[in-house]
Predict the structure.
Amino acid sequence: MSLFQFFFSRYKCLVYTAFGHENYLRIVHKLAAGDVQFRTKSYSQQGNQFGSPAFGFFPRNDFTQYDIYVKKEDEYKAQMAIHAK
């Protein structure tokens, strides 16, 4: 989280770190179903570029990291939504 976001964003509570697009979408769907607002910060890992020699034209593995933040008052509600079956 950047210094600007730390001081001015209401979304400060990290509730989940997802690796890969499929895992991220699964968690986001659960948060949306639980009516929880969130913000996401993503980090692309080295070697996961389209056309990269290591992965061919399309990447075989998605190593992108997604940090999902919620408001502090929504932390419990988010955890309940994420861990619901």
